[in-house]
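Example record

Each entry pairs one chain with its bound ligand, NDP.
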Amino acid sequence: MARRAVVTGASSGIGEATVRLFRERGWEVLAVARREDRLRQIAAETGATWFRADVTSDADMAALRAHVEETGPIHALVNNAGGAFGLDSVEAGSIDDWQRMFDVNVLGTKRAISGLLPSLRAGAKDAGSGDIVTVTSIAGHIAYENGGGYNAAKFAEHALVAALRLELNGEPLRVIEIAPGMVKTDFSLVRFDGDQARADAVYDGVVAPLTADDIAESIVHSVELPAHVNLDLVTIKPVAQAQPYKLTRGELTTRD
Ligand code: NDP
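Structure tokens for the complex follow.
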């Protein structure tokens, strides 16, 4: 029997790449996001199924729960929907941006876990194990200037994952956190509200930022390991990046 995964934030970037890789590896996948046109296209290309839901909406997430329960158990939940809005100081940052970041990254992940844990438990009864993979960020572990709102949300998402792992101890359910550094996706375009030049400048001169495929590889790898092996926390950065704020632009060269 094929295993089945639910991936949130599946319409672009890391989530889309994860859907594609799961499908290549023979998983059934339910792709979840808000942009139906993109979900429809990805589903047509990969054979995934899709469901339109905004993770910040209680009603949408209740509908997702009902849909998943009707369509069978699941074996992995990938909490990937999220992102940043703005790059501002704690003093000047907009409350609205901070609320949106908290809602999508923290409460969205909480909603998905609360709604889909019963289906994961049903899957674990069949297959022996189930996985909750959450894409946080290195921003959830190390603060950087003007990142306060995103840092606060991702630190909170990290804390949620840590508490969950304690709460689920004793069940055959792995709780895995993937914390990427710089990944070249639409992340910065969203952060800067569609300002392409500002988004491009983030990656300017960085020879090889991570790709969405790099992160998908680690997500799928972590759930395909033997069921007793729990990668609690996977931190992945491009070699050019030592910390969120310590980044080499230009070729990497050995020192004499
Ligand atoms: P993208 O902007 O390409 O992808 C974000 C995805 O989340 C989209 O599919 C978007 O779909 C979905 N999404 C956003 N808001 C909602 C919502 N309210 N409800 C449902 N889905 C939503 O960026 P990435 O792929 O880079 O981001 C994926 C995750 O990785 C995020 O959690 C991000 O914080 C994290 N991350 C990214 C890094 C990077 O450098 N790129 C680094 C570290 C972590 P739609 O708009 O259709 O709903």
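The helical segments are 13-24, 36-46, 58-71, 95-127, 148-168, 187-191, 196-203, 212-224.
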